[in-house]
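Can't attach files on this board, so I'm pasting raw text. These are the components:
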Amino acid sequence: MYKEKLGLQVRYRTRRSYSFCFYSAWLLFLFICWLSASLAMPGVPITPCLHFAQIAMKFISIESCQTSGKGYTFFKRYVWNQDGPEWVPTLVILRLNRAALCVQWSPKENKFAVGSGAKTVCICYYEPENDWWVSKLIRKKHNSSVTSIAWHPNNVLLATASTDGKCRVFATYIKGVDSRDSVTSLSTDAKFGELILQLDLSFSWAFGVKWSPSGNTLAYVGHNSTIYFVDDVGSSASAQTVAFRDLPLRDVLFVSERMVIGVGFDCNPMVFTADKRGIWSFVKFLDERKSTPSSSKYGSQGVLWEKN
Amino acid sequence: MAGEESFVEVDHAEAIITRIEHKSRQIERLLRLSRPVEALKTALEGSPPKTIDERCKSANWIVVHRAMMAIKDVDALFSSLDPEYYDILMKYLYRGLATGDRPTCDQCLRIHERLTERAGLGCILRALADTVNTV
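---
Top answer:
C-alpha coordinates for the assembled complex are below.
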Protein backbone atom coordinates (compact mmCIF):
# COMPACT_ATOMS: atom_id res chain seq x y z
CA MET A 1 0.00 0.00 0.00
CA TYR A 2 1.46 3.28 -1.02
CA LYS A 3 0.42 6.00 1.45
CA GLU A 4 1.29 8.98 -0.66
CA LYS A 5 -1.06 11.38 1.11
CA LEU A 6 0.63 10.94 4.47
CA GLY A 7 4.06 11.38 2.98
CA LEU A 8 5.39 8.24 4.58
CA GLN A 9 7.86 6.18 2.68
CA VAL A 10 6.80 2.59 2.90
CA ARG A 11 9.80 0.40 2.47
CA TYR A 12 9.39 -3.12 1.28
CA ARG A 13 11.41 -5.57 3.35
CA THR A 14 12.07 -9.24 2.99
CA ARG A 15 10.64 -11.64 5.52
CA ARG A 16 13.96 -11.90 7.26
CA SER A 17 14.25 -8.31 8.41
CA TYR A 18 11.88 -8.29 11.38
CA SER A 19 13.78 -5.49 13.07
CA PHE A 20 12.88 -3.18 10.22
CA CYS A 21 9.23 -4.18 10.44
CA PHE A 22 9.34 -3.41 14.14
CA TYR A 23 10.97 -0.06 13.53
CA SER A 24 8.42 1.00 10.95
CA ALA A 25 5.56 -0.27 13.12
CA TRP A 26 6.92 1.77 16.03
CA LEU A 27 7.12 4.84 13.83
CA LEU A 28 3.57 4.33 12.64
CA PHE A 29 2.37 3.97 16.22
CA LEU A 30 4.06 7.23 17.18
CA PHE A 31 2.53 8.98 14.23
CA ILE A 32 -0.97 7.74 15.06
CA CYS A 33 -0.60 8.90 18.66
CA TRP A 34 0.57 12.29 17.50
CA LEU A 35 -2.21 12.57 14.95
CA SER A 36 -4.94 11.70 17.40
CA ALA A 37 -3.58 14.22 19.88
CA SER A 38 -3.30 17.00 17.33
CA LEU A 39 -6.70 16.42 15.76
CA ALA A 40 -8.28 17.34 19.04
CA MET A 41 -6.80 20.84 18.80
CA PRO A 42 -8.12 23.60 16.52
CA GLY A 43 -6.08 24.64 13.47
CA VAL A 44 -4.87 21.19 12.59
CA PRO A 45 -1.24 21.16 11.51
CA ILE A 46 -0.26 18.64 8.86
CA THR A 47 2.96 16.70 8.99
CA PRO A 48 4.15 15.99 5.50
CA CYS A 49 7.56 14.55 6.43
CA LEU A 50 9.07 12.45 9.15
CA HIS A 51 12.50 10.90 9.63
CA PHE A 52 13.93 8.92 12.51
CA ALA A 53 17.58 8.83 13.57
CA GLN A 54 18.19 5.44 15.08
CA ILE A 55 21.48 6.00 16.86
CA ALA A 56 20.84 9.44 18.22
CA MET A 57 17.25 8.49 19.08
CA LYS A 58 15.83 11.68 17.68
CA PHE A 59 13.37 12.34 14.98
CA ILE A 60 12.32 15.25 12.86
CA SER A 61 8.84 16.17 11.81
CA ILE A 62 7.79 19.03 9.63
CA GLU A 63 4.51 20.75 10.19
CA SER A 64 2.62 23.30 8.26
CA CYS A 65 0.26 25.59 10.10
CA GLN A 66 -2.00 28.42 9.21
CA THR A 67 -2.16 31.41 11.48
CA SER A 68 -5.68 32.78 11.61
CA GLY A 69 -4.65 36.43 11.50
CA LYS A 70 -2.69 36.80 8.28
CA GLY A 71 -3.67 33.56 6.58
CA TYR A 72 0.01 32.67 6.25
CA THR A 73 1.26 29.18 5.85
CA PHE A 74 4.57 28.67 7.49
CA PHE A 75 6.61 25.61 8.12
CA LYS A 76 7.94 24.51 11.40
CA ARG A 77 10.35 21.77 12.03
CA TYR A 78 10.53 19.94 15.27
CA VAL A 79 13.43 17.86 16.42
CA TRP A 80 12.08 15.46 18.98
CA ASN A 81 14.40 14.30 21.73
CA GLN A 82 13.55 11.62 24.15
CA ASP A 83 13.51 12.99 27.66
CA GLY A 84 12.69 10.13 29.96
CA PRO A 85 9.43 8.58 28.81
CA GLU A 86 8.37 11.63 26.75
CA TRP A 87 9.38 13.10 23.44
CA VAL A 88 10.15 16.81 23.67
CA PRO A 89 9.98 18.97 20.57
CA THR A 90 12.47 21.70 19.72
CA LEU A 91 11.46 24.24 17.13
CA VAL A 92 13.78 24.87 14.17
CA ILE A 93 13.14 27.88 11.94
CA LEU A 94 13.63 26.93 8.31
CA ARG A 95 13.16 30.27 6.56
CA LEU A 96 11.20 28.63 3.76
CA ASN A 97 8.21 30.16 2.06
CA ARG A 98 7.07 27.02 0.28
CA ALA A 99 6.32 23.43 1.22
CA ALA A 100 9.02 21.25 2.67
CA LEU A 101 8.97 18.08 0.62
CA CYS A 102 11.55 15.72 2.05
CA VAL A 103 13.78 15.47 5.09
CA GLN A 104 16.64 13.23 6.08
CA TRP A 105 19.20 12.89 8.85
CA SER A 106 22.81 12.65 7.70
CA PRO A 107 24.60 9.30 8.27
CA LYS A 108 26.37 10.62 11.40
CA GLU A 109 23.10 12.15 12.57
CA ASN A 110 24.63 15.51 13.36
CA LYS A 111 22.97 17.34 10.47
CA PHE A 112 19.76 17.04 8.53
CA ALA A 113 18.65 18.31 5.16
CA VAL A 114 15.24 19.48 3.98
CA GLY A 115 14.25 19.77 0.34
CA SER A 116 11.51 22.23 -0.45
CA GLY A 117 9.24 23.66 -3.11
CA ALA A 118 11.06 26.97 -2.70
CA LYS A 119 13.85 25.61 -4.93
CA THR A 120 16.19 25.48 -1.94
CA VAL A 121 17.70 22.86 0.29
CA CYS A 122 18.09 23.64 4.00
CA ILE A 123 20.91 22.02 5.93
CA CYS A 124 20.44 22.26 9.68
CA TYR A 125 22.98 21.57 12.37
CA TYR A 126 23.08 21.90 16.13
CA GLU A 127 24.92 24.74 17.81
CA PRO A 128 25.69 23.68 21.39
CA GLU A 129 26.54 27.22 22.62
CA ASN A 130 23.02 28.45 22.05
CA ASP A 131 21.29 25.07 22.35
CA TRP A 132 19.71 25.75 19.00
CA TRP A 133 19.40 24.22 15.56
CA VAL A 134 20.70 26.55 12.84
CA SER A 135 19.77 26.30 9.18
CA LYS A 136 21.90 27.12 6.16
CA LEU A 137 20.30 27.33 2.74
CA ILE A 138 21.53 26.17 -0.65
CA ARG A 139 19.87 28.62 -3.00
CA LYS A 140 20.22 29.51 -6.67
CA LYS A 141 21.17 26.17 -8.17
CA HIS A 142 17.79 24.52 -8.46
CA ASN A 143 15.28 25.64 -11.06
CA SER A 144 12.33 23.92 -9.49
CA SER A 145 11.09 22.03 -6.41
CA VAL A 146 13.49 19.64 -4.76
CA THR A 147 11.60 16.38 -4.48
CA SER A 148 14.14 14.09 -2.92
CA ILE A 149 17.49 14.22 -1.12
CA ALA A 150 20.05 11.62 -0.15
CA TRP A 151 23.17 11.82 2.00
CA HIS A 152 26.40 10.19 0.88
CA PRO A 153 27.96 7.89 3.54
CA ASN A 154 30.77 10.43 4.06
CA ASN A 155 28.29 12.83 5.69
CA VAL A 156 29.31 15.75 3.47
CA LEU A 157 27.90 15.12 0.02
CA LEU A 158 24.21 15.53 -0.63
CA ALA A 159 22.41 14.45 -3.77
CA THR A 160 19.17 16.16 -4.73
CA ALA A 161 16.52 15.34 -7.32
CA SER A 162 14.29 18.07 -8.62
CA THR A 163 11.27 18.56 -10.85
CA ASP A 164 13.49 20.36 -13.36
CA GLY A 165 14.69 16.88 -14.29
CA LYS A 166 18.22 17.23 -12.97
CA CYS A 167 20.04 15.46 -10.21
CA ARG A 168 22.72 17.47 -8.43
CA VAL A 169 25.40 16.65 -5.90
CA PHE A 170 26.43 19.35 -3.42
CA ALA A 171 29.09 19.62 -0.77
CA THR A 172 27.71 20.54 2.63
CA TYR A 173 30.85 20.95 4.66
CA ILE A 174 30.09 22.90 7.84
CA LYS A 175 32.92 24.17 10.00
CA GLY A 176 32.66 22.83 13.50
CA VAL A 177 30.37 19.98 12.56
CA ASP A 178 32.34 18.14 9.87
CA SER A 179 36.01 17.32 10.10
CA ARG A 180 38.23 17.63 7.04
CA ASP A 181 39.45 14.04 7.48
CA SER A 182 36.09 12.65 6.53
CA VAL A 183 36.25 14.43 3.20
CA THR A 184 37.08 12.27 0.21
CA SER A 185 38.70 13.26 -3.06
CA LEU A 186 35.32 14.32 -4.43
CA SER A 187 34.83 17.16 -2.06
CA THR A 188 38.29 18.31 -0.97
CA ASP A 189 38.26 22.01 -0.22
CA ALA A 190 34.69 22.32 -1.40
CA LYS A 191 32.79 25.10 0.29
CA PHE A 192 29.30 24.75 1.67
CA GLY A 193 26.73 24.67 -1.11
CA GLU A 194 29.21 24.07 -3.90
CA LEU A 195 27.81 22.13 -6.84
CA ILE A 196 30.01 19.10 -7.44
CA LEU A 197 28.06 17.40 -10.19
CA GLN A 198 24.94 18.05 -12.22
CA LEU A 199 23.27 15.20 -14.07
CA ASP A 200 21.15 16.17 -17.02
CA LEU A 201 19.90 12.75 -18.01
CA SER A 202 16.18 13.06 -17.55
CA PHE A 203 13.73 15.14 -19.58
CA SER A 204 10.99 14.87 -17.00
CA TRP A 205 10.65 15.20 -13.22
CA ALA A 206 13.22 13.38 -11.14
CA PHE A 207 12.36 11.61 -7.89
CA GLY A 208 13.79 9.16 -5.43
CA VAL A 209 17.56 9.70 -5.44
CA LYS A 210 19.66 7.28 -3.38
CA TRP A 211 23.33 6.43 -2.92
CA SER A 212 24.55 2.84 -2.85
CA PRO A 213 25.91 1.62 0.55
CA SER A 214 29.51 2.41 -0.41
CA GLY A 215 28.59 5.74 -1.97
CA ASN A 216 30.02 4.72 -5.32
CA THR A 217 26.78 4.57 -7.28
CA LEU A 218 23.88 6.98 -7.47
CA ALA A 219 20.40 6.00 -8.63
CA TYR A 220 17.39 8.14 -9.34
CA VAL A 221 14.12 7.78 -11.24
CA GLY A 222 12.48 9.96 -13.82
CA HIS A 223 8.78 10.39 -14.36
CA ASN A 224 9.14 9.01 -17.88
CA SER A 225 9.41 5.39 -16.69
CA THR A 226 13.17 5.37 -16.61
CA ILE A 227 15.71 4.78 -13.89
CA TYR A 228 19.20 6.27 -14.05
CA PHE A 229 22.33 4.76 -12.55
CA VAL A 230 25.54 6.74 -12.25
CA ASP A 231 28.67 4.77 -11.37
CA ASP A 232 31.98 6.09 -10.07
CA VAL A 233 30.55 9.45 -9.18
CA GLY A 234 33.90 10.50 -7.76
CA SER A 235 36.37 9.87 -10.55
CA SER A 236 34.80 9.35 -13.95
CA ALA A 237 31.05 9.33 -13.75
CA SER A 238 29.40 6.95 -16.19
CA ALA A 239 25.64 6.97 -16.50
CA GLN A 240 23.21 4.28 -17.59
CA THR A 241 19.60 4.78 -18.50
CA VAL A 242 17.25 1.83 -18.05
CA ALA A 243 13.87 2.36 -19.67
CA PHE A 244 11.23 -0.09 -18.54
CA ARG A 245 7.82 -0.99 -19.83
CA ASP A 246 5.62 -0.10 -16.91
CA LEU A 247 4.38 2.91 -15.03
CA PRO A 248 6.96 5.27 -13.51
CA LEU A 249 8.67 4.69 -10.19
CA ARG A 250 8.61 7.16 -7.34
CA ASP A 251 11.38 5.93 -5.07
CA VAL A 252 14.27 3.49 -5.02
CA LEU A 253 16.24 1.63 -2.40
CA PHE A 254 19.67 0.04 -2.58
CA VAL A 255 19.43 -3.43 -1.07
CA SER A 256 23.11 -4.04 -1.79
CA GLU A 257 25.77 -2.58 -4.07
CA ARG A 258 24.32 -4.37 -7.06
CA MET A 259 20.63 -4.58 -6.32
CA VAL A 260 18.03 -1.85 -6.31
CA ILE A 261 14.32 -2.04 -5.62
CA GLY A 262 12.03 0.61 -7.05
CA VAL A 263 8.46 1.35 -6.08
CA GLY A 264 5.95 3.36 -8.04
CA PHE A 265 2.59 3.66 -9.67
CA ASP A 266 2.31 -0.02 -10.50
CA CYS A 267 2.02 -0.81 -6.78
CA ASN A 268 4.46 -3.62 -7.43
CA PRO A 269 8.13 -3.28 -6.47
CA MET A 270 10.62 -3.77 -9.29
CA VAL A 271 14.04 -5.33 -8.82
CA PHE A 272 17.06 -4.07 -10.79
CA THR A 273 20.46 -5.67 -10.65
CA ALA A 274 23.89 -4.95 -12.05
CA ASP A 275 25.76 -7.81 -13.66
CA LYS A 276 29.52 -8.46 -13.56
CA ARG A 277 30.21 -5.82 -16.19
CA GLY A 278 28.28 -3.26 -14.16
CA ILE A 279 25.37 -3.07 -16.59
CA TRP A 280 22.08 -2.52 -14.81
CA SER A 281 18.87 -4.14 -15.96
CA PHE A 282 15.39 -4.95 -14.77
CA VAL A 283 15.04 -8.45 -13.30
CA LYS A 284 11.53 -9.02 -12.05
CA PHE A 285 8.64 -7.76 -10.00
CA LEU A 286 8.59 -8.69 -6.34
CA ASP A 287 4.92 -9.69 -6.35
CA GLU A 288 3.94 -12.56 -8.63
CA ARG A 289 1.68 -11.48 -11.41
CA LYS A 290 -0.95 -13.47 -13.31
CA SER A 291 0.51 -14.66 -16.58
CA THR A 292 -0.17 -12.47 -19.57
CA PRO A 293 0.45 -13.42 -23.21
CA SER A 294 3.84 -11.74 -23.20
CA SER A 295 4.81 -12.67 -19.65
CA SER A 296 7.78 -14.67 -20.89
CA LYS A 297 9.29 -11.44 -22.11
CA TYR A 298 9.40 -9.69 -18.74
CA GLY A 299 12.93 -10.70 -17.96
CA SER A 300 14.33 -10.71 -21.48
CA GLN A 301 16.26 -8.07 -23.32
CA GLY A 302 13.77 -8.08 -26.15
CA VAL A 303 11.22 -5.96 -24.39
CA LEU A 304 13.31 -4.02 -21.90
CA TRP A 305 16.32 -2.27 -23.23
CA GLU A 306 19.10 -0.18 -21.83
CA LYS A 307 21.17 2.52 -23.44
CA ASN A 308 24.62 3.56 -22.38
CA MET B 1 23.27 37.46 -29.17
CA ALA B 2 19.76 36.17 -29.80
CA GLY B 3 20.04 37.26 -33.41
CA GLU B 4 23.20 35.24 -33.83
CA GLU B 5 21.57 32.14 -32.35
CA SER B 6 18.57 32.34 -34.66
CA PHE B 7 20.93 32.78 -37.63
CA VAL B 8 22.73 29.56 -36.72
CA GLU B 9 19.39 27.84 -36.18
CA VAL B 10 18.16 28.81 -39.69
CA ASP B 11 21.32 27.43 -41.30
CA HIS B 12 21.03 24.24 -39.35
CA ALA B 13 17.32 24.03 -40.22
CA GLU B 14 18.10 24.26 -43.96
CA ALA B 15 20.54 21.39 -43.61
CA ILE B 16 17.94 19.32 -41.78
CA ILE B 17 15.28 19.99 -44.39
CA THR B 18 17.66 18.93 -47.16
CA ARG B 19 18.30 15.70 -45.27
CA ILE B 20 14.58 15.13 -44.88
CA GLU B 21 13.98 15.63 -48.60
CA HIS B 22 16.71 13.12 -49.34
CA LYS B 23 15.10 10.73 -46.88
CA SER B 24 11.66 11.09 -48.52
CA ARG B 25 13.11 10.13 -51.90
CA GLN B 26 14.60 7.01 -50.30
CA ILE B 27 11.26 6.19 -48.72
CA GLU B 28 9.36 6.55 -52.02
CA ARG B 29 11.80 4.12 -53.54
CA LEU B 30 11.34 1.61 -50.72
CA LEU B 31 7.57 1.87 -50.94
CA ARG B 32 7.66 1.17 -54.65
CA LEU B 33 9.65 -1.98 -53.81
CA SER B 34 6.91 -2.93 -51.30
CA ARG B 35 9.11 -2.68 -48.24
CA PRO B 36 6.98 -0.53 -45.94
CA VAL B 37 8.71 -1.60 -42.71
CA GLU B 38 12.09 -0.41 -43.92
CA ALA B 39 10.49 2.75 -45.20
CA LEU B 40 9.17 3.47 -41.73
CA LYS B 41 12.54 2.71 -40.16
CA THR B 42 14.23 5.14 -42.52
CA ALA B 43 11.63 7.76 -41.72
CA LEU B 44 12.08 7.35 -37.97
CA GLU B 45 15.86 7.38 -38.11
CA GLY B 46 17.50 10.71 -37.76
CA SER B 47 14.37 12.47 -36.57
CA PRO B 48 15.46 15.90 -35.37
CA PRO B 49 14.01 16.02 -31.86
CA LYS B 50 16.05 18.89 -30.50
CA THR B 51 15.15 21.40 -33.20
CA ILE B 52 12.76 24.10 -32.15
CA ASP B 53 12.02 24.92 -35.78
CA GLU B 54 8.48 23.93 -36.64
CA ARG B 55 9.25 23.52 -40.33
CA CYS B 56 11.72 20.73 -39.70
CA LYS B 57 9.32 18.95 -37.44
CA SER B 58 6.45 19.30 -39.93
CA ALA B 59 8.65 18.14 -42.79
CA ASN B 60 9.71 15.07 -40.86
CA TRP B 61 6.13 14.39 -39.81
CA ILE B 62 4.99 14.40 -43.44
CA VAL B 63 7.63 11.83 -44.30
CA VAL B 64 6.78 9.60 -41.33
CA HIS B 65 3.08 9.92 -42.08
CA ARG B 66 3.60 8.76 -45.65
CA ALA B 67 5.53 5.69 -44.47
CA MET B 68 3.04 4.92 -41.72
CA MET B 69 -0.03 5.02 -43.97
CA ALA B 70 1.61 2.55 -46.32
CA ILE B 71 1.80 -0.12 -43.61
CA LYS B 72 -0.82 -2.82 -44.07
CA ASP B 73 0.42 -5.59 -41.82
CA VAL B 74 1.02 -4.23 -38.33
CA ASP B 75 2.18 -7.54 -36.83
CA ALA B 76 4.87 -7.92 -39.44
CA LEU B 77 5.96 -4.40 -38.60
CA PHE B 78 6.64 -5.27 -34.98
CA SER B 79 8.36 -8.53 -35.64
CA SER B 80 11.08 -6.66 -37.46
CA LEU B 81 11.20 -3.24 -35.79
CA ASP B 82 13.98 -2.78 -33.21
CA PRO B 83 13.02 -1.69 -29.69
CA GLU B 84 15.01 1.55 -29.96
CA TYR B 85 12.41 2.89 -32.40
CA TYR B 86 9.46 2.30 -30.08
CA ASP B 87 9.70 5.57 -28.20
CA ILE B 88 10.01 7.77 -31.26
CA LEU B 89 7.21 5.88 -33.06
CA MET B 90 4.93 6.45 -30.07
CA LYS B 91 5.56 10.19 -30.26
CA TYR B 92 4.63 10.24 -33.93
CA LEU B 93 1.52 8.16 -33.23
CA TYR B 94 0.32 10.79 -30.81
CA ARG B 95 1.03 13.48 -33.34
CA GLY B 96 -1.04 11.52 -35.83
CA LEU B 97 -3.88 11.14 -33.37
CA ALA B 98 -3.80 14.88 -32.79
CA THR B 99 -4.54 15.61 -36.45
CA GLY B 100 -8.10 14.32 -36.17
CA ASP B 101 -8.05 13.07 -39.74
CA ARG B 102 -10.06 9.83 -39.96
CA PRO B 103 -7.78 7.52 -41.98
CA THR B 104 -4.68 8.75 -40.12
CA CYS B 105 -6.29 8.19 -36.74
CA ASP B 106 -7.50 4.71 -37.73
CA GLN B 107 -4.03 3.69 -38.77
CA CYS B 108 -2.45 5.28 -35.70
CA LEU B 109 -4.83 3.49 -33.38
CA ARG B 110 -4.13 0.15 -35.03
CA ILE B 111 -0.39 0.60 -34.60
CA HIS B 112 -0.82 2.05 -31.09
CA GLU B 113 -2.63 -1.08 -29.87
CA ARG B 114 0.17 -3.36 -30.98
CA LEU B 115 2.91 -1.02 -29.82
CA THR B 116 1.46 -0.81 -26.30
CA GLU B 117 1.36 -4.61 -26.11
CA ARG B 118 5.02 -4.78 -27.10
CA ALA B 119 6.47 -1.80 -25.31
CA GLY B 120 4.13 -1.33 -22.37
CA LEU B 121 2.78 1.74 -20.68
CA GLY B 122 6.29 3.04 -20.03
CA CYS B 123 6.60 3.83 -23.72
CA ILE B 124 3.45 5.99 -23.60
CA LEU B 125 4.77 7.76 -20.50
CA ARG B 126 8.04 8.52 -22.25
CA ALA B 127 6.21 9.97 -25.22
CA LEU B 128 4.00 12.16 -23.03
CA ALA B 129 6.39 13.21 -20.26
CA ASP B 130 9.13 14.40 -22.58
CA THR B 131 8.38 18.05 -23.24
CA VAL B 132 11.89 18.85 -24.49
CA ASN B 133 12.19 16.43 -27.40
CA THR B 134 8.86 16.89 -29.15
CA VAL B 135 8.03 15.81 -32.69
